[in-house]
Amino acid sequence: MFLAILASNIRLVSHWSESRGVYDDICYLRQAHLFQRFGWHGLDTSLAHETDGYLAGKLRSIDFPNWNEPTRAPCHTEIADGSKWVMTPPPGTGFVLALFPEGFQVIPLYALANVMIGGFALYGLWRAREAGSLTLAALFGALSITFMINPAKASYSMAPTMVVCALAGLVTARLFVDEGRRRLMMIAAVGILLGLSASFRIANVILSAGYFLFFGLSFLIWRTRETFVAGLTLGLAFLVGLLPVFAANLVNSGHPLVSAYGGQDTAAPHLDPAVLRAYLRDTQFPLMVIACAWTALLWRFANHAGVRQLTLLVGANLALNLAFFATHPVFTPYYIIPILMLSLWTLLFAAVFTRGPVQGFDRAPPGRPRPPEMLSRV
């Protein structure tokens, strides 16, 4: 079933066009063009580098009004001192697009992302050992591969974001299920992945909110060296993951902590009934209900202390992210998909890692004694 959905996705992707009329697509492709043209200097997205007519050509191909006026181009803004115009999106999506030949970038990016998500789904299915976890792995695996077309096609930034969310979910689950000497290494891996996710979409930085809340409260409650080092490791690794964003900010805005988004007018956060109604009617709402219910059920029936702690982290992260987007002034069909996929992948891997026969224990038929060596392992 997974392979059939994956094959169908790749067949659909193979017919996509890179000139579909979506304004943000032009910016991601322009960032990729800058990387291919200038290497790492492509982080500088100033319109002063627009000497080969690439942006104008892309805008003209989608019949954009004023295509020959660079300062009217979408997702470009003038920085605070007025010295140059730069792009607002972070560099990550453009970077991964730049890995493929110009003119044939979107199709291989989505094909590769689909294959990687299919791999995560198959891994979850392979690790499942009981009927319940097997069913969860099958249903969610099919759903996750399906989502790689819709809503992931809505923005090129979603393809790499979905892969990072799956990988972060896997590492997070392993972190809480297998507590051992590799704990700090896994915390660092989670921090780097969460930081890197912001290179694809700035809003992905909110994915880390629940992690920092959990590790911060853990230190405030227990006040041990272990909880302090864990929180410090997460924070430092997160900063390492954010380095591409800091570098792009420094080059384009003149300060690593000042994003090009700062030059745009944004409405103050507020609850908009129209936005809430849009979410209620969208596919994201049932997914949100599933994620919340799954978190509550796993917390209630988990037979592993680490998994109970994990559900607290997932619940906090869901609450903080949903609160952020509920007060966001704009609705899109994919805004809360990253937090939902991160949460659902985490819950799935937690379930399949902790369900099944005890390691080293083979169930003997009723009435048949177990060998001494098996009893010693138990």
Q: How much helical structure, as a percent, in the residues?
A: 55-70%
CA distance, first residue to last residue: 37 Å
Query: How many structural domains can be distinguished in the coordinates?
Result: 2
Query: Unreliable segments (pLDDT under 50, ≥5 consecutive)?
Result: 356-378
- Structural class assignment: mainly alpha
Q: Rough shape?
A: globular
With helices defined by DSSP (H or I, 4 residues minimum), what is the helix count?
A: 16
Strand content: under 5%
**Biggest sheet descriptor:** 2 strands, antiparallel
Q: Report mean pLDDT, rounded to a whole number.
A: 90
Taken in chain order, the helices and strands follow as HHHEEHHHHHHHHHHHHH
* Beta-strand segment tally: 2
Instruction: Output the strand order for the largest sheet.
Output: 1-2
Radius of gyration: 23 Å
Keywords: Membrane, Transmembrane, Transmembrane helix
Transmembrane segments: 107-126, 133-152, 158-177, 184-200, 206-222, 229-251, 285-303, 310-328, 334-353
Protein name: Glycosyltransferase RgtA/B/C/D-like domain-containing protein
Structure description:
- By secondary structure, this protein is mainly alpha-helical.
- It has two domains: 19-97, no CATH class; 150-351, no CATH class.
- The protein contains 16 helices and two strands.
- The chain has helices at residues 2-13, 23-38, 54-61, 92-97, 106-127, 131-146, 158-177, 183-197, 209-222, 225-241, 243-253, 273-281, 284-301, 305-326, 337-354, 372-377, and strands at 76-78, 85-87.
- The protein has a two-stranded antiparallel ribbon with strand order 1-2.
- Helix 1 packs parallel to helix 6 (131-146), helix 7 packs antiparallel against helix 8 (183-197) and helix 14 runs antiparallel to helix 15 (337-354).
- The longest helix has 22 residues, at 106-127.
- It is globular.
- Residues 356-378 have low confidence and may be disordered.
- The chain crosses the membrane at residues 107-126, 133-152, 158-177, 184-200, 206-222, 229-251, 285-303, 310-328, 334-353.
- This is Glycosyltransferase RgtA/B/C/D-like domain-containing protein.
- Keywords: Membrane, Transmembrane, Transmembrane helix.
